[in-house]
Amino acid sequence: EAGVAQSPRYKIIEKRQSVAFWCNPISGHATLYWYQQILGQGPKLLIQFQNNGVVDDSQLPKDRFSAERLKGVDSTLKIQPAKLEDSAVYLCASSLMYNEQFFGPGTRLTVL
Amino acid sequence: AQTVTQSQPEMSVQEAETVTLSCTYDTSESDYYLFWYKQPPSRQMILVIRQEAYKQQNATENRFSVNFQKAAKSFSLKISDSQLGDAAMYFCAYRRGSGAGSYQLTFGKGTKLSVIP
Is the Cβ–Cβ distance between A109 and A90 less than 8 Å? Predict the structure, then answer.
């Protein structure tokens, strides 16, 4: 069974530029999560989808971050414009409803 | 809000020895799950072990076991017969167990485990 796929694996951008990350969850997983992991900290939830609906986006900085999950499968997380403090690893996870979450390899973002 | 605290930023253990990683949490809920995740350098996070709060018996997965003290809100991970491949960041995490809404994982800051040959 294929795991959670993410791309790109690494991204370096200048501040005020925009960037997008892509996630493909495990086939059949209805629930998809985006976490932000800043160096030296544990991951923090940005947004949770159930199929293509948002369950929780209370910690998503909506002035610059946006996410969508069209057709309830793939998801895209966008940052526009990026700030220095957005440098982090962005993790995507998926689960069958509310069971175990499986994580992807992450996208490491560096904002210069 | 739930919080998870890992008070040991770094730990080391000799190969084949036993090490215990500590975790405390705070919650007002009665139905929840606790997890230990392993994150090797530049590799993805994987689940090591999980514990349901309603179960009194401590979870065990091969060389990994937990000491779940519900009243003290403590959840430690014991790794027996440590191997070089156990070297990684270990995260303790909390998740609510039921009801509508978010099932996000709340993580601690992690403990970096080094295994000495």
Answer: yes
- Domain boundaries, given as residue ranges, for chain B: 3-116
Residue A48 to residue B44, Cβ atoms within 8 A: no
Residues 6+ apart with CB under 8 A from A61: none
Mean pLDDT of A83-94: 97
Residue B39 and residue B89 in contact, taking contact as beta carbons nearer than 8 Å = yes
**Domain edges within chain A:** 5-111
Calculate how close chain B gets to A88, using CA atoms only, in Å.
13
Cβ distance A43 to B4 less than 8 Å, yes or no, reads no
Identity of the residue in B4, B44, B101 whose CB atom sits nearest the CB atom of A56: B101
**Arch. (CATH architecture) of A5-111:** Sandwich (2.60)
User: Across the interface, which of B4, B91, B104 has its CB nearest the CB of A45?
Assistant: B104
Tell whether the model's pLDDT for residue A24 goes beyond 80.
yes
**Burial (Cβ within 10 Å: 0-12, 13-18, ≥19) of residue A102:** buried
Residue B98 pLDDT exceeds 80: no
pLDDT in tens, A99-110: 789 999 999 999
User: Would the CB atoms of A44 and B109 count as touching at under 8 Å?
Assistant: no
Please choose, from the candidates B97, B23, B9, the residue with its C-alpha nearest in 3D space to the C-alpha of residue B53.
B97
CATH topology of domain B3-116: Immunoglobulin-like (2.60.40)
Q: Which amino acid is at B12?
A: S
Residue type (1 letter), A109:
L
